[in-house]
Design a protein that fits this description.
This is NAD(P)/FAD-dependent oxidoreductase. The protein contains 12 helices and 21 strands. With 448 residues, it is of the alpha+beta class. The protein has 3 domains: 134 residues, FAD/NAD(P)-binding domain (3-Layer(bba) Sandwich); 90 residues, no CATH class; 104 residues, Polyamine Oxidase, Chain A, domain 2, CATH 3.90.660.20.
Length: 448
Amino acid sequence: MNKQLTIVGGGITGLASAYIAARNGYKVRVLEASPHFGGLLNTFPIGGNRLEYFYHHFFTHDVELNWLIKELGIDNKLVYKKTTMGVFRDGTVYPFNSPSDLLHFSPLTLLDKGRFAATSLYLGKLARWEDYESISCLEWLYRYAGVNTTNSLWKPLLDIKFGPYANDVPLAWLIGRLRQRMNSRNRGEEKLGYLQGSLDTLLNALMEKLKCLSVELINHSVVTNLQVSEGKLVGLQTSKATYSGGDYLFTIPTNYAKELVKGIDSHLYQQLDKIEYFGAVCVILDLKKPLSQTYWLNVADSGSPFGGIIEHTNFIPSQDYNNKYIAYLSRYYSHQESISSQSNEEIIATMVPYVKKIYKTFNPENINDIHVFRTKTAATVCDLNFSRNVHSFKSSIQNMWIANMVHIYPDERSVNNAIRVSAEACRVMGMQTSFIPAGNSLSGKIGG
């Protein structure tokens, strides 16, 4: 008789886990609370095509993602293109793609530039993240990259991304972030990947493959109660039905999972309660004209209402969207910050005028439409020695397993890293995962 697995959460971690388990001969069902599977992979129609709620791209070294795309037979849809990056600082947009661009970055002295290059190279290529969990990014950067370098570049970027937690972000996180970016560069040139038709292409192909493998996909299914007997999870109740038997893998955010074990396992609840999440908002501008020629602009300006402008159609041609030009205004936020309770209209009224400060030629009359997408669980709040708070895949309740965004630390959230977490969770559960190639992702290293 086949082993049985019930997966709670139909985002990429849950769906990738379902695929791995089904290939291992498991009878699998996936329960998703919302009407749609995909989680942060979801898309909306624009210009005769589809676009992600939250910007996505792939790296050339995303081995696990490339494996899944090939397994699904959609590798002919994957394209890699050269991209450009910039930094806005002190009223000026600076290109930031090569050593020569760094030399022309006037906010830094020649000594600052040398220290920036040396420290970035060390963190991205040589440093071991395990050695730098107990020191904050800012503390280390002030000491080694220098005060001016840190205040001109790193501090504004960390402030806008982490808000009140900026002083406590461990250097281990920055090591993971820089390693991810540097490994995507070849002689200073960066190529990024994208799927023609958006991540909807991946989601549809994966869903079809799961159906072919007889995986049961059940949406509108909110888990309301766990049935635990003698320390063992024997079943769960949803808004639709009761399910029992086999193992249970929870891929939902920890703040939802903890509520399900409250009153059942106090130790597990306390462990899960240590995890907090950042929210995120993307204001997507549908434009008649591009803002610039830059794909990714980091805004290193104190007081900016967003941390970056990502001009999607400087990556994927506007012709793919009936000649519309698309730009994301991106912002992470703590739930303590006022933006977390602002309406979409208030956020638009704050963000859109600021674009004019960066790009002087921007005219709001060039906006065809504005779309706003938000999530309460965009990334985990990682503070010093965060690995101590990363719970094991195997929980203290027998038959209950947990794999989610927490396990991506110290790496950065991505589709590839979610697949790596799925592979590690399935391996720990006793499945065969040797058919999944392992790249240089740092995800899934903690919790096994």
